[in-house]
Amino acid sequence: MSWPQKRQRPAGTGRQSANHNTSGKHFTTNLDPVSLLLGRLEGVIKTGNGWRARCPAHGSKSASLSIAQGDNGTLLLHCFAGCEVHDVLAAVGLEVGDLFVRRDFKTMTPVERSQFLQAALLPKWRAALDVLIHEANVLQIAASRMGDGFALDDEELHRLRISALNIFDAKEVLHAR
Ligand SMILES: [Zn+2]
To answer: In this predicted model, what pLDDT tens digit does every residue of 3-39 receive, in sequence order?
Structure first.
């Protein structure tokens, strides 16, 4: 079985509406994290306290992905080749929120609620940090050109204004709680 290499969606386009759709289509949100993830992995082996499987992110044939079940059914992933959890999940079309047992928000403890909310925010934070890193490079180049005594032309000044807007947007995302 092979799954398409699905890349992460842009920030802000979550799957919030999936729970409201009750048509006959198959929705992954009805499955518990174990069935959801293990069904998409290859070479799954049961181990003492969890599972091992081939890591879908780096594509090696060894069972380098370790899967364990933590408190409240939450799945914990670790790729021994060093892949990030986001990349492992994206390779099989899942996100960090899929590692958590879907429950009514009202029945969660405060700690579970905060873990759940943080997991939902991680992809947005990551996208915002990518923007900040990119714009930091733009600003660094501009600063070093000015430092060398060059005046910036209109096109470069225009690019700096776009940088300022992008940085503003990224900061908004990072400040949102
Ligand atoms: Zn890996």
So the answer is: 444 444 444 444 443 444 333 333 344 567 888 899 9
Q: 133 CA distance to ligand 1 centroid (A)? A: 24
For residue 64, how far is its CA from the centre of ligand 1 (angstroms)? Answer: 7
Q: Which amino acid is at 48?
A: G
Give domain limits for the chain: 16-102, 114-175
* Ligand 1 center to 84 CA (angstroms): 7
Report CA(34)–ligand 1 centroid distance (Å): 18
CATH fold of 16-102, please? DNA Primase; Chain A (3.90.580)
Q: 48-95: per-residue pLDDT in tens?
A: 889 999 999 998 889 999 999 886 778 889 999 999 999 999 999 998
Name the pTM for this structure.
Answer: 0.47
Q: How far is the centre of ligand 1, averaged over its atoms, from the C-alpha of 88 (Å)? A: 6
